[in-house]
Amino acid sequence: xxxxxxxxxxxxxxxxxxxxxxxxxxxxxxxxxxxxxxxxxxxxxxxxxxxxxxxxxxxxxxxxxxxxxxxxxxxxxxxxxxxxxxxxxxxxxxxxxxxxxxxxxxxxxxxxxxxxxxxxxxxxxxxxxxxxxxxxxxxxxxxxxxxxxxxxxxxxxxxxxxxxxxxxxxxxxxxxxxxxxxxxxxxxxxxxxxxxxxxxxxxxxxxxxxxxxxxxxxxxxxxxxxxxxxxxxxxxxxxxxxxxxxxxxxxxxxxxxxxxxxxxxxxxxxxxxxxxxxxxxxxxxxxxxxxxxxxxxxxxxxxxxxxxxxxxxxxxxxxxxxxxxxxxxxxxxxxxxxxxxxxxxxxxxxxxxxxxxxxxxxxxxxxxxxxxxxxxxxxxxxxxxxxxxxxxxxxxxxxxxxxxxxxxxxxxxxxxxxxxxxxxxxxxxxxxxxxxxxxxxxxxxxxxxxxxxxxxxxxxxxxxxxxxxxxxxxxxxxxxxxxxxx
Length: 486
Description:
Blueprint lengths: L3 H21 L1 H13 L26 H6 L30 H7 L11 H13 L5 H9 L3 H10 L2 H15 L6 H24 L7 H6 L5 H8 L9 H10 L6 H13 L9 H28 L6 H6 L7 H11 L7 E4 L17 H11 L3 E4 L5 E5 L5 E3 L6 E7 L16 E4 L3 H13 L5 E4 L21 H6 L1
């Protein structure tokens, strides 16, 4: 991942240079012309350099979907390849380094510039339309975290605000504790971001913990994730913010093996008489099939273990552990020292993502699981039953099917409720609770009195933002005024 952005920038330069040379070759030019005539593009003219030959980027070379569907990978089960296992990145440096290519690079991003019917312009249109798919947050952050000397020098001159913002987003996503909310979260985030950039400054200047000459000699050919594991996070769990983010980002796999295996499972399911299976159902079936494959692999490993073939070093690496199981040891130390788990955060109001008005008649298992994640296992005292202790079912909600108003309610159970029995056989031990203000007030009162149950309750006016990551599109929600009325 540490080399992806650099390769994208080099591709930008190389395409303009070498595609034009290929187009100028008379033999290749005639072959390309004949090829596109066969594909139904007789207007293609490799000699057209006139500004009057402007066409829309989609009109020159139409993408043949039927042919694309027939294209299969020659090796769907290919192992994942880490980009850091590629050849020395120094071999990719532009031959014209030091010329005006870097200035031309900024001008070639405009799609409207490549509007002619030549092969060069067509290739550049295709490239620019797809280039943004590579430039995600992991790519941008990995560019700044690469220890390779060539990439580091390139990053010093070409890093932009987009790279900085990508790093800040990944710190919030990967490192910042999910149990922090409101001002406490913003304060901790600011502290981590400041710490990261201070350490990144030492990383760039080869100062502080990076002032040893031997580590930079190794950085030329050593994979970036191994380099950071050795020099940026030598203490494991006590690694710095910079070391944690570096190991998480640059170790991401760029190979297509996982995607190919997933499509293989997908096609095994959606075939024959099941070709009209919906995409969502097929996705769920593929997940179930994948889990089944994992279970069979587990059984196979158990059989090998019984035959005397036990763990290898690679197995520990796959479990994100070292040979001495240090993560498990650290967790045991925390339990022995009496440290509690992070408190559960409960937002005591109906959030926007909960206000679904499009629940299908058969229910929505994904939406139900999201509701269970928020409400499952919560307790309160029922005022209509003399303060009887009531608990939200930890695994399911109560589905109500009504014309134009299919929705979920809380499946509230008593102490005598038997989770092994059918709810219909014990109707006296449970009842549905709607998401009304009284529910939230009762839950808040209960946990304000029982601090030992490790649940932190926030009201809507408190310093706690809503969980927007599970927010749904506006056209699937009630109006804001309706939520205020509720």
